[in-house]
Amino acid sequence: MSDTTINADPAELAKFSELAHRWWDPDSEFRPLHQINPLRLQWIQSHVPLSGLRVLDVGCGGGILSDSMARQGANVLGIDLAGKALKVAQLHALEAGTPNVRYREVSAEALAAEEPAGFDVVTCMEMLEHVPDPASVVRACGELVKPGGWVFISTINRNPKSFLFAIVGAEYVLNLLPRGTHEFAKFLRPSELAAHCRAAGLDLHGTRGMEYNPLTRRYWLSADTSVNYLIATRKA
């Protein structure tokens, strides 16, 4: 990817911008994000207490995770290239009085050039499956985090089960997500993501899967990484 190319799919940005006003409606298309957010936060804090740390949330969207990390005492910067979603995030922070959170419309790669090793923790959740070059984002995350700092990533595995659950089930049967939210070819196997992390100087410290029961509408973390999964890495 050249320096002049933005690592983003215009169609993806348009899709999330169109839904921007619904980010903070817990019964909207973003309901799954609201439901899994406590699990994501718990996973992060099981590795590193966030209070007092400088945290970057890459691909923050409307700020659901950014806001919750700031409420744990972190000094949070959320970045995204979907301008409308960022405006919603900023408005919510003002309305909710969330301390220590701000937002910028900038790519991870551009910010890495500005602030190398500038953050104690970097998160990149449910974002890599929406960009043309996920390795570039992971590399930028590795550049942005301080030595000894943590990078947390979540995405979707690529296999027949994930196609059935994350696309057919979630988008067409259960209507948990708008149709067309995901593209199967962009899903990442854990081995592929681990290779990107190693190339970025990030050591793998743990992996967890995230499961969903459509009957109870409950999400939980497990050892099953066959569909949604999270990884914890640390900069050498």
From TrEMBL:
Its EC number is 2.1.1.222, 2.1.1.64. Pfam families: Methyltransf_23. It catalyses: a 3-(all-trans-polyprenyl)benzene-1,2-diol + S-adenosyl-L-methionine = a 2-methoxy-6-(all-trans-polyprenyl)phenol + S-adenosyl-L-homocysteine + H(+); a 3-demethylubiquinol + S-adenosyl-L-methionine = a ubiquinol + S-adenosyl-L-homocysteine + H(+). Keywords: Methyltransferase, S-adenosyl-L-methionine, Transferase, Ubiquinone, Ubiquinone biosynthesis. Transmembrane segments: none annotated. Pathway: Cofactor biosynthesis; ubiquinone biosynthesis. One of its GO terms (biological process) is methylation. Coiled coil: none annotated. It is an enzyme of class 2 (transferase). HAMAP family: UbiG. O-methyltransferase that catalyzes the 2 O-methylation steps in the ubiquinone biosynthetic pathway. This is Ubiquinone biosynthesis O-methyltransferase. The lineage of its organism: Bacteria, Pseudomonadati, Pseudomonadota, Betaproteobacteria, Burkholderiales.
